[in-house]
Amino acid sequence: MQLKVNWLDYILDDEWEIFPAGGATGDAYFAQLNDKRLFLKRNSSPFLAVLSAEGIVPKLMWTRRLENGDVITAQHWINGRELKAQDMNGPDIAHLLRKIHHSNELLDMLKRLQKKPLHPEEILLDITKRLEKEKDLSKLATITEGLHFLEMELQNIQYEQKVVCHCDVNHNNWLETGDKQLYLIDWDGAMIADPAIDIGLLLHWYIDKEDWDSWLELYGLELTDNLRLRMKWYVVSQTILSILWYNTKDLQKETQHWINYLQSLTS
């Protein structure tokens, strides 16, 4: 369904066709005029320009500031596909994630945007505070076991080399073009943190454990006991946060899914 969006009236002529691009904010759109295609978003982070320059997201075409201070960005609209779960063991995934984690340009930009490094103590405190408001969940044995694991291992998973982490490496955020160019999109949750956040989620969700060594070799890491522990710590913490989020949205099917997954991690 074609739309007309007020803030786009200042950017595009009437000839453009505009369609919603989905997403939680409702501030993203596709626009098309003949053979010209754009992905438009309101108030994207300035981080987008560096991601584009690094070839991590589709090319940034232009940026416009409206009179009310809103910033509109236009990216090249690619003809690509979202990866499926079975695609996530490919070498290009490991290579792009390594590039992201080793990029000084991305790290410098997040620091200029006043992003502070995320420490595991902050994650644990956030979980504890949220559980105080969710009495029923806090009494679940699975949640209790997960929280106990996080508390017991907190001092054993300290890691000083913080990098830029995407923090949501779900297969839906990976796009591949027809000529096999790979992109990682949706950077709203990016943090400066332990790379084990991204690596751990990706390996636990998508890669068979017997293949972890070979995947990490593609990335450029050895599977040590410390890395294995750090990955598990962040996967457990993110799983508890997912349980809390879905529960507040009263999405019981999804809540139970993540409770079952947490049980598989801690059993």
From TrEMBL:
InterPro entries found in the cross-reference section: Aminoglycoside_PTrfase (IPR002575), CcrZ_PhaseVar_Mediator (IPR052077), Kinase-like_dom_sf (IPR011009)
Sequence ranges assigned to domain Aminoglycoside phosphotransferase in this UniProt record: 20-224
Name of the protein this chain belongs to: Phosphotransferase family protein
Organism in which the protein naturally occurs: Litchfieldia luteola
Lineage: Bacteria, Bacillati, Bacillota, Bacilli, Bacillales
